[in-house]
Amino acid sequence: MPGLVSQSTFTCTRCLRATRPLNGVSILHKNAPRRFSPALPLRREDSSSNVATDSEDQASIEAQILKQCSKNASESKAVEEEQGAMSRRLFEATEDAILEGGRAGRKAVEEAGFSEQLKAILLERVEASNFRTENASALTEASLPLNIGRGSRDIATAQAWTGHEATEDTVLRMLDDARKPLNPGLRGSGKIPSPIVDLRLKKQAKQRPGQRLANARDTTSIYAISKDSQMSEEEREEMRRELKERFTPGARAMPNSIRGLAALANERIEDAIARGQFKNIPRGKAIERDSRADNPFIDTTEYIMNKMIQRQDIVPPWIEKQQELVKTAHAFRARLRNDWKRHAARTIASRGGTLQEQMSTAALYAQSEAVHNPKKRAIEQISVPTNLTDDTVMAKIVQEAPSSMSHGDPTVQISVETKEDETGIAKAAPLQADRQSPAEPTSLPPPFRIPSWEEAEQSYLKLAIADLNSKTRSYNLMAPGLAKKPYFSLERELKSCYADVAPQLAAAIRERATRPARELVEKIGHRPGGIMERVGSNDVPVHDSKRPLYGFKEFWNDLFGEKQA
Fold first, then answer.
1. Residues 6 or more apart in contact with residue 347 via CB below 8 angstroms
2. Which residues does the UniProt record annotate as the domain DnaJ homologue subfamily C member 28 conserved (predicted)?
3. In the chain, what are the helix, strand and coil shares in percent, each to the nearest 5?
């Protein structure tokens, strides 16, 4: 039979354009794309029926849209005819206030007293505008025709430009710009090449005797261990698992790239973490950090210099000078107290009387000393101002004894003598004694003093005090302000010596009287025996030896014999 030709109506573009209503297209879709007939001249009957159905549905939808648009247009024209220019202007201002003002704009519209119909129209427009704004991409995609490509569709549905580039777009642009694209001629095809499989039989590599011997030894040892009767079933199962992992195909295949090695290392590390091998790992020694390194109140240069000095075991010069000064002052005070205690004990003991009378006399002198010259604490801890270190500074502490029992604690008057004049400083606070001084009875003697001893020791004491003051001056010139020391005074040192030694006089007298007398000359008495026995020692050590005796003959040979080379 000759070929059958399916007869179907064909509508060209000109006829389709002529059949459409002019007003409807101009009102709804001013920028609508051109629509061609989707039906071909030669199509089957079923396709023609489907096309007819689609065209009928589309025609009905367009008719409904045109009807709704004409209705809205008529309503809007009626409203415009009723309102004047001022009303339309106020209506537009109100609409702008609602759209752009937010809650404040809506509240202002509600308080203005508009009619309910106008409020409903305005709110409806606001909601419609918000809906279109929130779902702009979805509405745009729904209104696109089906014949638009993927690229055009993505561009139409993309987010509108807001003036700022999104983070995702920035990262993508940076990744694209990181590598210069290849020229079109150098670009390869997008097809993944299939691996070439060589099905030819290959000759196995010949093993060396050493490799064969090593493999045979490993196989023998594994077989012997697996057949060991002392192994439990769990140990055998674990060995089978290890052998299975070892001889699994591809188990020993090593990657040929850095990424493959990194992936293999990460896999093994994760397996070890899962097995718990990274738990309770002994930590290293903690880093010792000095908290003063970040202290904003410490100068960085000073901190670094101090660290260098500590690391190299170096002390500042004023520290060495301080040690020398303290050592010299300690030696001077120890000698002064020792000499005064020995001389005072001899003087009291030379007056005669029993030991108890001498000790009671020393105790009375100690009580009198505690009343008139009590011991004070930290007499030296007086900081010297920096501006006075250039002059010869002498600090005197004068103790004023209370005139009667009603007086309270003694006050201390401090005076500073300079080269120009003598300036008196305000009275200091009362110094606390080591123990409360007892009340002064009428029977207490004056404090024990020996003017002759002071005159005899005056030259030595003045020289020692001058040496201490010179060392103190050199120390104060190098030391910082808070570490400076006061100068020494002979009167203050003597009073401190008397106050420290007075309680020790009774014990010194008792020790002097009770210790055994020391024999200055050895006395040789009568001993039995002759002269040789008296001269010789009583105990004579005797040394016995088995070596040959050394006599006169051996001495003669050594003296005049031939010298052996």
1. 450
2. 264-333
3. 55, 5, 40
